[in-house]
From TrEMBL:
<feature type="transmembrane region" description="Helical">
    <location>
        <begin position="405"/>
        <end position="429"/>
    </location>
</feature>
<feature type="transmembrane region" description="Helical">
    <location>
        <begin position="435"/>
        <end position="453"/>
    </location>
</feature>
<keyword id="KW-0029">Amino-acid transport</keyword>
<feature type="transmembrane region" description="Helical">
    <location>
        <begin position="336"/>
        <end position="357"/>
    </location>
</feature>
<keyword id="KW-0812">Transmembrane</keyword>
<feature type="transmembrane region" description="Helical">
    <location>
        <begin position="161"/>
        <end position="183"/>
    </location>
</feature>
<feature type="transmembrane region" description="Helical">
    <location>
        <begin position="245"/>
        <end position="267"/>
    </location>
</feature>
<dbReference type="Pfam" id="PF00324">
    <property type="entry name" value="AA_permease"/>
</dbReference>
<dbReference type="InterPro" id="IPR004841">
    <property type="entry name" value="AA-permease/SLC12A_dom"/>
</dbReference>
<feature type="domain" description="Amino acid permease/ SLC12A">
    <location>
        <begin position="12"/>
        <end position="453"/>
    </location>
</feature>
<feature type="transmembrane region" description="Helical">
    <location>
        <begin position="287"/>
        <end position="310"/>
    </location>
</feature>
<feature type="transmembrane region" description="Helical">
    <location>
        <begin position="42"/>
        <end position="63"/>
    </location>
</feature>
<feature type="transmembrane region" description="Helical">
    <location>
        <begin position="131"/>
        <end position="149"/>
    </location>
</feature>
<feature type="transmembrane region" description="Helical">
    <location>
        <begin position="100"/>
        <end position="125"/>
    </location>
</feature>
<feature type="transmembrane region" description="Helical">
    <location>
        <begin position="12"/>
        <end position="30"/>
    </location>
</feature>
<keyword id="KW-0813">Transport</keyword>
<feature type="transmembrane region" description="Helical">
    <location>
        <begin position="363"/>
        <end position="384"/>
    </location>
</feature>
Length: 471
């Protein structure tokens, strides 16, 4: 079967944890969320970021606890995945469901990013067909992932570095503009938050439904927890990655949105179409628009790279649990890379990208809408797993946890409650209703599929036993 190599360094995990959430959702989707929610989008981003922080804390607690339990039992002290935690502490059906939903979400993201990259390349270089750019960049990322996990880490490190630097520059310039210390700009003051229809001009429900889009935009923080398993010191790096989440989410997302609503009126659709570039242009940086386009392109490649890595590792874990074909658990590459899992995820991603060109307004649109809801469902499973894990851990071990969920179990239940409300709120908005029904159908379908497979497996085992007994 082989084993994954621990060749990622601490700096790789640190930068992956910082840059993992900075994707096109931040650069492109933020303006759309402000248009639908108003200045109250700050509340949506704050709630979503707090939820992700809580989820990461839960993942960190389970990961650190599993390492302790593994050492005590004399077994493996490897970091597990969300699927393995759900399977162990909720039930095999939950592990199957979480694993496949998470894998499917990230594979679709690979296809989405590939399609967007192809479109950008075609706009810059019309002689390159969109499909060729999509296939070419995905093939390049596949090669990088197959070569070694260290090549993935190094590549992602520098992509994340560019993204982090761009956001840092925006934050510095934006804060200087708001404080009135940036030359040739007159700050509008706090009045801009209420003078165009109020702080929440469209009511409370859009604030909740916007959380779905925000979670889809910032999903990826947990990638660092997966990557930590292939690092030099998993126990240390998982703690460091989790602790970085609080600071980076608040600074990059909530900070960016706060700057936007204090500079651009929430109903200015033209300016919010590209808020980062437009604010930097207002500041007198004329090449900002071009630079932001380059950063967006780099972000697309970064997200595609991380999505391919994440989906392949989840497929590997699913195979090892017996919930996916055994071929995907093989690690024949001498550098400890799960080549079959990477290729399998890439093939499905190509199919998703093809759907973008075949039916962008129907099939691809519905699949895209489904991902946000599925991520929320996965996070609910993670929270339930953590509650059950903690109760089990407290019974069998008195060793302190390296990462511990705050105010247990109350904050865990609060997270489940908010996530459930947000998920159900999708059904209240016409534009999100199809997303709610589709993601719910996929969720129920995965559970039903597990039951069918388990029944067939049981029946097959019984037939084999009967045959052996008769002989």
């Amino acid at each position: 079967m082989g084993a994954l190599q621990k060749s990622l360094k601490t700096r790789h995990i640190t930068m992956i944890s910082i840059g993992g959430v900075i994707g096109t959702g931040l650069f492109v989707g933020t303006g759309k969320n402000i248009l639908s929610t108003g200045p109250a989008a700050v509340v949506s981003y704050t709630i979503a970021c707090l939820l992700i922080v809580l989820i990461m804390q839960m993942v960190g607690e389970m990961a650190s606890g599993e390492i302790v339990l593994g050492k005590k039992s004399g077994g493996s002290a490897e970091l597990g995945s969300f699927a393995s935690y759900a399977g162990k502490y909720i039930g095999p059906w939950a592990g199957f469901t979480v694993g496949w939903l998470y894998w499917a979400s990230w594979v679709f993201i690979v296809g989405l990013e590939a399609a967007l990259i192809g479109g950008m390349l075609h706009n810059w270089f019309p002689m390159i067909p969109t499909w060729l750019g999509s296939v070419g960049i995905t093939l390049l990322m596949t090669i990088i992932n197959i070569y070694s996990v260290k090549s993935f880490g190094e590549f992602e490190y520098w992509l994340s570095f560019v993204k982090v630097t761009a956001i840092a520059v925006f934050l510095v310039v934006g804060i200087a503009m708001i404080l009135g210390i940036w030359p040739n700009y007159e700050p509008k003051g706090l009045g801009i938050l209420t003078e165009f229809g109020g702080f929440a001009p469209n009511g409370i429900v859009p604030i909740l439904t916007a959380i779905v889009f925000v979670i889809f935009s910032i999903c990826g923080a947990e990638v660092a927890a997966i990557a930590a398993a292939e690092s030099e010191n998993p126990a240390k790096n998982i703690v460091r990655a989790i602790r970085n989440v609080v600071f980076r989410l608040g600074l990059f997302f909530v900070g960016s949105v706060a700057i936007m609503v204090l500079i651009i009126p929430w109903n200015d659709s033209k300016m919010l179409a590209a808020p980062y570039a437009n604010i930097l242009t207002i500041a007198g940086l004329p090449i900002a628009a071009q630079l932001i386009q380059i950063v967006i392109f780099i972000s697309l490649i970064s997200v595609l790279n991380s999505a391919l890595y994440t989906s392949s590792r989840m497929l590997l874990e699913m195979s090892r649990q017996g919930d996916a074909p055994k071929i995907f658990s093989q690690i024949k590459n001498r550098r400890g890379v799960p080549v079959p899992a990477i290729i399998g995820s890439t093939v499905v991603a190509y199919i998703c990208a093809m759907l973008y060109f075949i039916s962008p307004e129907v099939i691809f649109y519905f699949l895209g809408n489904c991902v946000g809801g599925l991520m929320i469902a996965v996070y609910i499973f993670i929270a339930i797993s953590q509650i059950r894990f903690r109760r089990y851990y407290d019974k069998v071990s008195d060793e302190p946890l390296a990462i511990k969920m705050w105010l247990f179990p109350y904050l865990s239940y609060v997270a489940i409650g908010i996530l459930t409300v947000v998920y159900l709120c999708q059904a209240l908005i016409g534009s999100l209703r199809s997303q709610f029904y589709l993601s719910t159908s996929v969720l129920i379908g995965s559970v039903v599929l597990f039951m069918i497979m388990r029944k067939l497996s049981t029946r097959s085992a019984e037939q084999i036993e009967e045959k052996l007994a008769s002989e």
